[in-house]
Amino acid sequence: MSFVTVRDVFQEYDGRPIIERVNLDVAEGEFVSIVGASGCGKSTFLRLLLADETPTRGRITVDGGTPAREPGRERGVVFQKYSVFPHMTVRDNIVAAESFPKGWGWFRGAKLREARARADEVLERIGLAHVAKNYPSTLSGGMQQRLAIGQALHARPRILLLDEPFGALDPGTRLSMHEFLTQLRAETSMTVFMVTHDLGEGFKLGDRVLVFDKTRWDPDYPERYGATITYDFDARDHGIPYQHILDKIPSLAAQGDPAPAPD
Amino acid sequence: MRLLNRHPTRPTGILLAALPFVAVLIAYWIGSEIRLAANPQDKLLPAPETIMITAGRLFTEPNKRTGEILLWADTFASLRRLAFGVGIGALISLTVGVGIGLLPYVRRGLSSFVAVLSMVPPLALLPILFIVFGLGETSKIVLIVIGITPFLIRDLSQRVLDIPHEEIVKAQTLGASTWVIALRVVLPQILPRLIAAIRLSLGAAWLFLIAAEAVAAEVGLGYRIFLVRRYLAMDIILTYVIWITLLAFLIDFALKTLSRKAFPWLGGGL
């Protein structure tokens, strides 16, 4: 049942623990938001999921496979910045998602025309068809991130990793990006991990919200212990997952009124 | 208003840009006048008119014996050496620079070596080059290559390292191999840097070229200058110096234009 499995993962830099004893099971198609204070290791955890780094201890597997040792096509990623290639046009950035696994990273002739046609479809869907021939530097921040997401999804990854993807956008653009991401998810239903600073964003988009924090503190040596997952919220139905529980499991209603909540 | 916030208007700007040139010309002209007034045979600061006449003769008059115009032959020979030297240096530095910047194994193996190599004064190697490669074209080209390549390698490898790690990771998640990342992500972004670095190293390249030509050559701009020095032919030397300056300026301008035209994605940067 578990699609992404994280078992006893520790990560240290030069003997300094960043995260410790992280265990996690994520089902296929879940949207997991990861929040926490600055420096709590949430970006480190994302890099581990991405296989950009390998954990000091423990293992991370996707669909029961062997742990990855470097990033690959299984994982798509969108960073806060630098997620698209500045020297390629918007359309070529999408084509790159198809052509990069090939020997020279290029398409020619009929293959190129077909790939470009498919790229144009993608651009149409993400609303960037009118700037297909522009370079990313001429695009607004929101458009660049939309391109980055489109590019990542065009490679058809099994999990999508977002590292504060909307952190650098203004609030209005951020809202429209939320809509855009929600739409895309409805179409693709892929597994997503999103690191964010914005708690509201995490709850709004995620099915689950994980909080990273330190559980142990050494007041004399604050760097002694790393962070781990301290909360795992169910964020479906606006963070109140059980309000419609009777609709889903009517048999519960027959057992009478729920016990009064303890004070 | 603070001085640093004052900007010249366009006509003033052009005037200011022209001012140092005019000042140098006038200073030379005055100096020349004073010396020629004292001694009309003075050769040290020939009058501007004399230089103009000499220049006209040098550019148009063929050599009586061989029938070729020496200045053009010199120009052709020197530019050929420069082009080969800079071209070979650029190719080597591109390969090694991308290797050092992208591959940890190459970085560990070569970066300290290149750092030490770049401290070797190239001109001190010139005698060795003449002994090893002879007095022909090779030793001059090799001197230019040795002179500029370590600098180019260090600059380019640093530029490769400056490419955001995010881009490299992104390319990997799209399935790119090391080769494809070098070819499609790193190389295109490094080429404008290569041109910028070449522009910076051209001054050094000219220096090494003229030095090599001065020591041993049969034709070339530097060779001619050091040849006519014996006759104190200041008018010829000055013509050559101005000509070399003009050539260097035109090459720099051409490279700048090329960089702007060929890399539209830079969006005016660089």
Overall spatial form of chain A: globular
Shape of chain B: globular
Assembly state here? heterodimer
Summed up, the helix count of chain A is 7
Topology record:
The complex is a heterodimer of chains A (263) and B (270).
Chain A lengths: L1 E12 L2 E12 L3 E6 L5 H9 L6 E6 L12 E4 L11 H10 L9 H17 L15 H14 L4 E5 L7 H18 L2 E5 L3 H7 L2 E7 L12 E8 L10 H4 L15
Chain B lengths: L9 H29 L9 H13 L9 H33 L1 H14 L8 H8 L3 H26 L2 H9 L4 H38 L5 H8 L5 H29 L8
Helix pairs in contact in B: 2-10, 3-4, 3-6, 3-8, 3-9, 5-6, 6-8, 8-9, 8-10, 9-10
Task: Quickly describe the structure.
The complex is a heterodimer of chains A (263) and B (270). By secondary structure, chain A is an alpha/beta fold. Helices cover 30% and strands 25% of the residues of chain A.
List keywords for this structure.
heterodimer; A: 263 residues; alpha/beta; Rossmann fold; 6-stranded mixed beta sheet; 3-stranded antiparallel beta sheet; 7 helices; 9 strands; B: 270 residues; mainly alpha; MetI-like fold; 10 helices
What does this structure look like?
The complex is a heterodimer of chains A (263) and B (270). The model of chain A has no long low-confidence stretch (mean pLDDT 86). In chain A, 39% of the residues are buried. By secondary structure, chain A is of the alpha/beta class. Chain A is globular and about 60 Å long. Chain A has a domain of 162 residues: P-loop containing nucleotide triphosphate hydrolases (Rossmann fold, 3-Layer(aba) Sandwich), CATH 3.40.50. Chain B is an all-alpha fold and 270 residues long. Chain B is built from 10 helices and no strands. Chain B is globular. Chain B is 77% helix and 0% strand. The longest helix of chain B is centred in the last third of the chain and has 38 residues. In chain B, α3 runs antiparallel to α8, α6 packs antiparallel against α8 and α9 packs antiparallel against α10. The two termini of chain B are 30 Å apart. At the A-B interface, β5 and α4 of A face α7 and α8 of B.
